[in-house]
Write a sequence for this structure.
């Protein structure tokens, strides 16, 4: 798996699309996935909007439950890394971050007005 560091400063506005959810290693048993250190892994769907481009949604995994993040809120993503993966004839890119935190003043109510 190839690891690619991502410069979040070049991504434009990052906004929470789906609030943090526990990531399951086994959907049937609802067993929560854990990282190498045994911490639970959570995912946050984040919209990315660069100037004059369409909005993309990426799902970012992070160790431990991100606190204070609501849908529509502008967020800061620290230590974002993309991983190119392939399994048989399937392939894609997954994302992982060190932290995802709410931006001060980037409340969901403000975000809905489009002035962030």
């Amino acid at each position: 798996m190839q690891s690619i560091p991502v410069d979040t400063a070049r991504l434009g506005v990052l906004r929470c699309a789906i609030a943090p959810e526990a990531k399951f290693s086994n959907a049937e048993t609802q067993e929560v996935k854990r990282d190498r250190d045994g911490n639970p892994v959570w995912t946050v769907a984040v919209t990315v909007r660069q100037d004059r481009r369409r909005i993309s949604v990426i799902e970012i995994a992070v160790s431990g439950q991100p606190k204070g993040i609501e849908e529509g809120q502008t967020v800061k993503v620290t230590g974002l890394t993309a991983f190119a993966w392939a399994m048989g004839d399937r392939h894609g890119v997954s994302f992982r971050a060190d932290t995802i935190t709410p931006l001060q003043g980037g409340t969901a109510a403000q975000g809905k007005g489009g002035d962030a």
Remarks:
- The helical segments are 108-112.
- The chain has one domain: 2-105.
- The two ends are 35 Å apart (CA to CA).
- Confidence is low (pLDDT under 50) at residues 109-116.
